[in-house]
Amino acid sequence: MCLAIVAPAQAVGVADFPPQAPTAHVLDNAHVLSRAGSQEIERVLQTFEEEHVDARVITVSKLDYDLSLNTLGEELLARWATQTNGEGEGVSRLLLLIDGQTRSTAVVASTGLGGRLPAELLTSTADSTMAIPLRSAERYRQATLDALTRLGTVL
Questions:
Q1: Measuring CA to CA, which residue among 78, 144, 138, 134 is closest to residue 107?
Q2: Which residues 6+ apart lie within 8 Å of 62 measured at CB?
């Protein structure tokens, strides 16, 4: 018989993220993506730069009490809002968030993307495009790629 001690997942809040957006586009803190899946998603996220959008995928294993994915996303957008694109303009940022514990999803965008990516589209992408593959089969990679394809088409 083999026994292993597993540390409980630590709850995550905005303070657990760096003050500036990291260089990696995929922050798989919940470890739900394979290395190959992360690399594939990273390549797709980089294509959003052609549309002047800094797109990120963030997975968490457990959220702080009373914190929703939408709230975490909004707080990260506010935290990282001081960055500019080198021309003095704020960066247009898109965040796709996944809670690995509950398999819930959220998609949030900075205000500069409001005209290009309406709130209804972001909600629909999280609630259907991403959530259905996650709830039915825990297909994190596929859910993320489907969402990015949908949002990329609109952009």
A1: 144
A2: 9, 10, 11, 12, 99, 100, 101
Strands 92-99 and 104-109: antiparallel
Task: Tell whether the model's pLDDT for residue 60 goes beyond 90.
Answer: yes
Report the candidate in 54, 95, 75, 56 with the shortest Cα–Cα distance to residue 12.
75
107: left (phi over 0), alpha (psi -120 to 50) or beta: beta
- One-letter identity of residue 121: L
Q: What is the pTM of this model?
A: 0.88
Q: Which of 122, 127, 133, 121 is nearest to 32 (CA)?
A: 133
Task: Report the alpha-carbon distance of residue 148 to residue 122 in Å, rounded.
Answer: 11
Residue-wise pLDDT tens digits, 65-107: 889 999 999 999 999 987 655 544 567 999 999 999 899 999 9
**Minimal CA–CA distance to 62: which of 31, 88, 22?**
31
Chain segment 121-151, per-residue pLDDT in tens: 999 999 999 999 998 888 999 999 999 999 9
Do 146 and 133 touch, CB atoms closer than 8 A? yes
Backbone angles phi, psi at 59, to 5 degrees: -110, 145
